Amino acid sequence: MSSNLRLTVSCPDRKGLISALSSFISMHDGNILSADQYVSDEATFFMRLEIEGEGFGLSRDEFAGAFRPLARRHGMDWHVSHTDTPKKMAILVSRYDHCLTDLLWRWDAGELDAEIPLVVSNHPDLAPRVEAHGIPFHHLPVTKETKAEQESRVLDLLSENEVDLVVLARYMQILTPKFVDAYRDRLINIHHSFLPAFAGADPYRRAHERGVKTIGATAHYVSEELDAGPIIHQDVAHVSHRDTVDDLVRLGREVERRVLARSVRLHLEDRILVDGNRTVVFE
Amino acid sequence: MSSNLRLTVSCPDRKGLISALSSFISMHDGNILSADQYVSDEATFFMRLEIEGEGFGLSRDEFAGAFRPLARRHGMDWHVSHTDTPKKMAILVSRYDHCLTDLLWRWDAGELDAEIPLVVSNHPDLAPRVEAHGIPFHHLPVTKETKAEQESRVLDLLSENEVDLVVLARYMQILTPKFVDAYRDRLINIHHSFLPAFAGADPYRRAHERGVKTIGATAHYVSEELDAGPIIHQDVAHVSHRDTVDDLVRLGREVERRVLARSVRLHLEDRILVDGNRTVVFE
Amino acid sequence: MSSNLRLTVSCPDRKGLISALSSFISMHDGNILSADQYVSDEATFFMRLEIEGEGFGLSRDEFAGAFRPLARRHGMDWHVSHTDTPKKMAILVSRYDHCLTDLLWRWDAGELDAEIPLVVSNHPDLAPRVEAHGIPFHHLPVTKETKAEQESRVLDLLSENEVDLVVLARYMQILTPKFVDAYRDRLINIHHSFLPAFAGADPYRRAHERGVKTIGATAHYVSEELDAGPIIHQDVAHVSHRDTVDDLVRLGREVERRVLARSVRLHLEDRILVDGNRTVVFE
Amino acid sequence: MSSNLRLTVSCPDRKGLISALSSFISMHDGNILSADQYVSDEATFFMRLEIEGEGFGLSRDEFAGAFRPLARRHGMDWHVSHTDTPKKMAILVSRYDHCLTDLLWRWDAGELDAEIPLVVSNHPDLAPRVEAHGIPFHHLPVTKETKAEQESRVLDLLSENEVDLVVLARYMQILTPKFVDAYRDRLINIHHSFLPAFAGADPYRRAHERGVKTIGATAHYVSEELDAGPIIHQDVAHVSHRDTVDDLVRLGREVERRVLARSVRLHLEDRILVDGNRTVVFE
């Protein structure tokens, strides 16, 4: 059994949690490959452990049964994943192709350990790009009248494909609370500004009007409130008076794709734990 | 005459402006050391010229008379300064010392070509720091009742000292429109966020609450609206979930002093031209 | 005639050059859209001018004849290009696809104003990637014995296609002085380190061994000496002890493609002038 | 007892180390405030633990006796420090004041948790700067003839003051192997280039000659070979053709002081473990 385990845990902080967790693993002859830990100001304990599968005494089926009593005693939220079972990731996209193209290239290059069972778009334009990678492309157009129905069909597709992570790679539709709730903490959006600046529409034009000298991009989990969910990663680029709105769009694409790809990678490796409206990121 | 000239010009764009300006200088046997030019989207022409003083045919007294007809013909706003006459810079400060200390150190190190005839503070704390550099320190305390009167005394001091540039190095008082108007485009503030995010009070605490992964600082000319004036320079630092509000304050100090010092230097070298609510920065 | 002109000039510095150049353009009713100028420590004058084609009194055929006397008088090296005539760019590549893919995506997105008449590789792997963009792909394998002959065929292909710019997008062959000389200042290489550190082979492995905390990439014009030509642009990424050589490779790819793309764009817009073993870059 | 403990450990990797360490602490009723762990490619295990003093069952005197058997069994190199006992830091400096000034300012601001019992210089210039902070300044001039003797006196001073950490804040003397050995892994130097580029003398001049577009600074532990010890932190600044050697010096000062201060802070908080010629930095 060459697959390793990743265990993430959060619970109220108290003495002895690291000892309890590491002893549990030692007791079953497990080897901890890496351990990251953090206690928030509000005294919540977060931990991520990578455990070598080789030699570990608990089979995949046995783990939950053996771990549950310990988890219950400490009130733990916990999640375990196996490195031989990549997450299933869906990408939603509209017409802008830079984030999609970059994710697909990185996926081909082995940077993103995921299956991609489908890409969904409200426009047909990017079908060839997606299908060239052997990935099914679903064109589900949307109008004001069909919005609810279209979203419902998207949700059906995600569900049929047992999707673990939904990436909004510049998907220009606002999702309903029902969608957001179904994929809470598993729905990553890239916003083309350094939030909270320029939340909402048309950030590059507004950045240009304000005369900023720095533009940015923000990847975050989607919550009910627009562009207000837990931030995963942000980065910026310097700009000058010479840069037109078109230049900001061009320079911003660079930042957007970098920030999104890094965030997706962190999620796929179970490195992000959500702490209220903040994220704990174990890099 | 070893002093060089810096000429900055802005006017409606039209054909032949560079030729007109450079020919004017050539005609008087001037040597252009550097030239920067920019035309905005709104067809405003901006230019900055450094002219060697040695060999230039126009004396300091003659320049304006010779240049004015050309300027008038093209509707130019223009300004000339001489490198042997450093600007007079006043610093206003409250209790935080990092920006002040950094400016004074750079001034000592020869990075800032200015005279500093005075530092004004509403608190007495930083007097020894300032006086150690041989600079007069004026303590003008302020209460709600004495605000108008105190500001009036500050303005008098600035005027008596013929101050060209006022730097708010974390001066924790909001200035009246009268003050802003008196030093329009000559009044630099450092705000401890990447504007327009977190304008107003307590940006580090709000940044922490929002869970941002990047903090920043913004230097801008002060206008009537709080934290909304033309931005000169911005920079950021990456932060993580481990950083408390105190850590953000500490990391932010680093960015604030760097951003402010660079902006002051650019202003002192006449490298910033204001274009409505934006800045043209010839670096 | 909607095409604009870009004129770049370098010559020994002397009084009146800006005036002479701008007057020449004014004399022929030209409108200068942008002007950048620089004088080096060694008193060499560099200038780049963008001139509006609309209304300019000199036709494409007349320009050289009209300008040559002025250029000769001042000993100018000069070059004029027209914005309706994109440069012809060839890409040489081996097996790594990240720089190639990124250049092609940017070209599709309109970021790079060039024709790409051919891509040449010593491996067949990337043919489908290139041909999907409608660009001819030439596979010219190379062995120790056929190296001279292969390079000769590459040069023939470049010549037949009247190539203006050759981009080495991780082309893993060292070029002969003959090749370098044929495309001097028109041959851009991306090296996967911040030169002069780790010139030569295997920089990521050597960076890892040295335990650096920053990796980088450098785009430069190729000269006879390996990795020693004029540097165009450099950028870096921060790394930590957790990053393996494979991580450095992955993080480095990101920097390489960004640095190369920016350098190619600058070259295509005639923004780079070579000054001995340095570059003047008018951004 | 409000002082917390910091325990750092390195040893050959094997199963159960985290469990053994955390159980040891739990057994004595200790609360782990933070835990960082890393296993190198060469299978060396590194860990840093912060343990709450309040409620911990082992007194300061008892800790070593209780921990030693466990440490011996696993072949651990280990070190414990207490947060109420700041390290004693000496600063060695020559004439450049920027790094010294910055360290002293940060120390005043509470950013550096250390005692500074002395500053040593081979020049008298910076005495007033140091004494203004109430720190003894020792002027020990050095000539080619007195080099050995002077270094010997410096070592005596460090020893008399029981110094834990020596910071070379642009100290322009090469130390002998005897000195290096006495303060191995406790002797931090700031070099004004991104190593391994421009090791040795005059890096800014050489960077300018090479025409780089990025300059940097590197903080490292000093080893016998010049500028070749384990790197702690590096950072860079972008430069352009316009920047003279003097500009590089000015821009570099900014990077130097930032990189040095961060490295010193990391060391003072026991966040750096040395792994051969590399560093493990738990930020």
From TrEMBL, chains A, B, C, D:
It is an enzyme of class 3 (hydrolase). Its EC number is 3.5.1.10. Belongs to the PurU family. InterPro entries: ACT-like_dom_sf (IPR045865), ACT_dom (IPR002912), Formyl-FH4-Hydrolase_C (IPR041729), Formyl_transf_N (IPR002376), Formyl_transf_N_sf (IPR036477), PurU (IPR004810), PurU_ACT (IPR044074). Pathway: Purine metabolism; IMP biosynthesis via de novo pathway; formate from 10-formyl-5,6,7,8-tetrahydrofolate: step 1/1. It comes from Rubrobacter tropicus. The keyword RNA-binding does not apply. Keywords: Hydrolase, One-carbon metabolism, Purine biosynthesis. This is Formyltetrahydrofolate deformylase. GO terms for biological process: 'de novo' IMP biosynthetic process; one-carbon metabolic process. Residues 6-87 form the ACT domain. It catalyses: (6R)-10-formyltetrahydrofolate + H2O = (6S)-5,6,7,8-tetrahydrofolate + formate + H(+). Catalyzes the hydrolysis of 10-formyltetrahydrofolate (formyl-FH4) to formate and tetrahydrofolate (FH4). The keyword Hydrolase applies. The gene is purU. The active site is at D227. It comes from the Bacteria. GO terms for molecular function: formyltetrahydrofolate deformylase activity.
